TrEMBL record:
Belongs to the RecX family. Keywords: Cytoplasm. GO terms for cellular component: cytoplasm. This is Regulatory protein RecX. GO terms for biological process: regulation of DNA repair. Residues 16-56 form the RecX second three-helical domain. It holds the Pfam family RecX_HTH2. InterPro entries: RecX_HTH_2nd, RecX_HTH_3rd, Regulatory_RecX, WH-like_DNA-bd_sf. It is found in: Cytoplasm. Residues 65-116 form the RecX third three-helical domain.
């Protein structure tokens, strides 16, 4: 009886993993500026099928430039770190803090490395 009810609900469009995932990604992308790694992980925890997640993430990549989002976040974080009156930080410490911040936001290593290189105007790799 339960499975029939679920099938009826799906048929009427009340349960739609693809639409849910699209809306979730759009809302999280706008409000929290999360990277694709964090979005994928959150959707997996919600029970969305991997194929659906990969489709929605691919659609997002066509609409949102993740590097630009990460760059804007990193600039804001850098400004906060530099304005802190408690402590003056070295460039390597600033890079590490930004790296950790963007990692927590779910951006890929490649994106983070590109952003840090762009902000600090160099091409050295960071870990």
């Amino acid at each position: 009886m339960i499975s029939k009810a679920v099938e009826d609900i799906k048929r009427y469009g009340f349960i739609n993993d693809l639409e849910y995932a699209r809306n979730f990604v759009l809302n999280k992308s706008k409000s929290k500026s999360l990277g694709k790694v964090a979005l994928k992980q959150a959707l997996l925890l919600k029970g969305i099928p991997l194929e659906t997640i990969e489709q929605v993430i691919a659609e997002r990549e066509n609409l949102i430039d993740e590097t630009e989002v990460a760059f804007e976040l990193a600039q804001k974080k850098l400004k906060l770190l530099k304005s802190s009156k408690k402590k003056k930080r070295s460039e390597s410490e600033l890079k590490r803090k930004i790296y950790e911040f963007l990692t927590r936001r779910g951006f890929t290593w490649e994106t983070i490395n590109h952003v840090i290189g762009k902000i600090f105007d160099d091409s050295e790799l960071y870990i």
